[in-house]
Amino acid sequence: MAKPSSKSRSKAKPKSKRGGLLHRLQRIFNLVRFLAVLLLLLIVGRAAGYALPGLAHLTRRGRWFPAAGAHVALILGHAGSDTGAICTDPEGRPTVTEAAITRQVGELVAQRLRRAGADVELLEEYDPRLEGLRADLLLSLHADSCIDASGYKAARSQESRIPGVEDRLLACIDREYATVTGLPPHPNTVTHNMTLYHAFRRVDPETPAAILEMGFLGGDQELLTERPEVVAQGVAESILCFLNPEEPPAP
Ligand SMILES: [Zn+2]
């Protein structure tokens, strides 16, 4: 009686060993599958423009993710503070406000940059996060007054500690924003409000920063209000140009 039972035990042993191995392999396979689904969700979420953390560091900067690993901060001009410039109808009622435009364009820019792999922070005009902010780029989005003029303009701090870097950013805007939107530059109206812009003094001095007036609420109203995705593309392309210095803007 003892013999067959010991025989059957010796037979069962290798079987359970194999079963254990299979079980372990299955657990590893399940884990890999879980991680793959998680990664896929992150990529799909990022492609949809959601601010999902972490992925920027998993992807390499290149053709598919030209902003991978970059930390970009955008100020939605006048957000949380006031309306900025206003256009009014003959009865004096506001028809278009600068703040509405900077918010709409800024959110579209953020979606584009997140799809390109960047971590994007949207800030209000006097956002407390500006204090000592360290980022690969800070760009403040504004629009100009409701006069019958047309064109964009950008400026950096006149007290910049990194003028060469910031001038490269302005060159990228001059190349990409002008090309995508078709707007002419309007440099003669760059004011001290722009070169002494409050945020320039608040962020870390090593954070490249600029302010962009995306057009006039008056002469460029159709572009700014009816085609905000074109404006956003111009801003995003300017930022991608800056983040990829291996492609220097043509003089
Ligand atoms: Zn403004």
Give the CATH level 1 class of the largest domain: Alpha Beta
Uncertain runs: 1-12
Tell me, what's the shape? Answer: elongated
Bound molecules: zinc ion
Q: At the fourth CATH level, what is the homologous superfamily of the largest domain? A: Zn-dependent exopeptidases
Rg from C-alpha positions?
Answer: 27 Å
SSE pattern: HHEEEHEEEHHHEHH
Secondary structure tally: strands: 7
CATH topology term of the largest domain: Aminopeptidase
Task: Say what oligomer this is.
Answer: single chain
Domain tally: 2
Largest sheet: 5 strands, mixed
Secondary structural class: alpha/beta
Q: Compute the separation of the termini in Å.
A: 95 Å
CATH architecture of the largest domain: 3-Layer(aba) Sandwich
Identify the strand order in the major beta sheet: 4-1-5-7-6
The average pLDDT is 88
| Number of helices in the DSSP assignment | 8
